[in-house]
Amino acid sequence: MEGSDTHPTAAFTLLVNGPEAEIELERAALLIAAHARPDLDVGAELDGIDRLAGGCAGPELVDLRDHLFGTLGFSGNTDDYYDPANSYLDRVVAQRRGIPITLSVLTIAVARRLGLDLVGVGLPGHFLVGARGDDDLFIDPFSGGRVLDGDEVEALFLALHGADAPFSPAMLRPVGSRAVLTRMLNNLLGIFAARRDARSRLWALRLRAAVPGATIDERAEVAAALAATGEYAAASRWLQELAREAPGAVGESYLRSAERLRACLN
User: How many beta carbons lie within 10 A of that of residue 106, not counting itself?
Assistant: First the structure.
């Protein structure tokens, strides 16, 4: 585990609230996974990623692609795309299958260990990897590490969203670690909602609320999830905290909701 006396929620919160440039993306992703598997040894998983990088024949991008997507066969899980395991980095490493964003996180992590500066590209509907300093080179880990140029990425977007979907070059810009983690959590929230898994949805909401930039509405969802699981006192406290920073009428509505939740305790 992240440390015998460190809860993964606390460790995740501390990590994502540090300087953006210092967030170790794969560690944060593993801390998300640790909420699904409490016995997860984050340090051991990071060592495993070190070994993946050590298996590359050389330090170039072609070496990384040949090793991860050729020799090891990492690719997208097209058989069971919405399996939550596809969003847990430890399971992706073990099964060599995942969804675009977790495969991208792994690719970026291995690349950094080789001295390569790859970045996340948040194309709507299909996360990609880009090369810092080259605006026309992209990697699709979901498709076995296929290399794309900007025109091919646009074609991928239109294939996903329809020929009339509005495409913008801004979609090809690198995204920071916090945006990557928020997107990972949003993916899980959608899966948990579809499965009516209220307990898992609660921890994912808590983690999303811990990421700087979370909206007040997103943070208020935590209170609703707490109430849905019968944790009325915790939900009331959460709303009271939000009321201190919410503007006028919104803050008052949170206080009224907190009072109604406290009444459920009587």
Answer: 24
Quick check: 21 and 178 in contact, CB under 8 A? no
> What single-letter DSSP state applies at residue 4?
T
Q: What b-and-e string marks burial along 69-84, b requiring 16 or more CB atoms within 10 Å of the CB? A: beeeebbbbeeeeebb
Strand 97-98 relative to strand 128-131, pairing: unpaired
Contact in structure between 101 and 29 (CB atoms under 8 Å)? no
- Sequence-separated (6 or more) residues with CB below 8 Å from residue 216: 242, 245, 246, 250
pLDDT tens per residue across span 39-59 = 999 999 999 999 999 999 999
The whole-number pLDDT of residue 247 equals 81
Which one, of 148, 136, 58, lies nearest residue 100 by Cα? 148
Residue located via tokens 């992706």 = 92
Amino acid in the structure at residue 83: D
**For residues 266 and 252, what is the distance between their CA atoms, to the nearest angstrom?**
22
Rounded to two decimals, what is the model's pTM? 0.94
User: Which residue in 188, 227, 171 sits closest to 83, CA to CA?
Assistant: 188
> 45, 93 in Cβ contact below 8 A?
yes
Determine the pLDDT at residue 118: 97
